[in-house]
Amino acid sequence: QVQLVESGGGLVQAGGSLRLSCAASGIIISIRHMAWYRQAPGKQREWVAKINSGGITTYADSVRGRCTISRDNAKNTVYLQMNSLKPEDTARYYCAATNGGNDMVYWGQGIQVTVSS
Q1: How far apart are CA 103 and CA 11, in angstroms?
Q2: How far out from the chain centre does Cα 105 lie?
Q3: Contact between 66 and 84 (Cβ < 8 Å)
Q4: pLDDT tens across 25-56, in order?
Q5: How far apart, in whole angstroms, are the C-alpha atoms of residue 82 and residue 69?
Q6: Would strands 91-98 and 34-39 be described as parallel, antiparallel, or unpaired?
Q7: 105 φ, ψ to 5°?
Q8: Using the 8-state DSSP alphabet, how is residue 23 labeled?
């Protein structure tokens, strides 16, 4: 059974930082593409960042330069370091993983990030 469990969210002031964690079980993250998505109230879910099985990272324009996705293979955990947070970063953040292809088929329950102005 695959589980992705996010942690590290919360309330932070604009300009602050948070580090989200995604602890995986039932899969080995080093051979998967892993990603972070977010969904703000009333908006569609949007992709934030991705780290592929080769360790190559890509970012949405809205977070590039402010966020860093990384993974710790020994801990089977993916991280999203978010700096210089803005109120528009307020959303529920989800961790996702592929299953041998390129589609994200495994999803966590999400973690709330709220940035106050």
Answers
A1: 31
A2: 15
A3: yes
A4: 999 988 899 999 999 999 999 999 999 999 99
A5: 9
A6: antiparallel
A7: -110, -15
A8: E
State in Å, rounded, how far the first CA of the chain is from the last one: 40
Q: Please give the Cα distance from 73 to 39 (Å, whole number).
A: 27
In contact, 37 and 48? CB cutoff 8 Å: yes
Q: Are 51 and 41 in contact (CB under 8 A)?
A: no
How far, in Å, CA of 113 to CA of 13, rounded?
11
Of the candidates 21, 20, 10, the one whose C-alpha atom is nearest the C-alpha of residue 75 is 21
Distance of CA 16 to the CA centre of its chain: 17
CB 37 within 8 A of CB 47: yes
Mean pLDDT in residue range 16-30: 95
Q: What pLDDT was estimated at residue 102? A: 86
Residue at token pair 């604009």: 14
Give me the chain's average pLDDT, please: 96
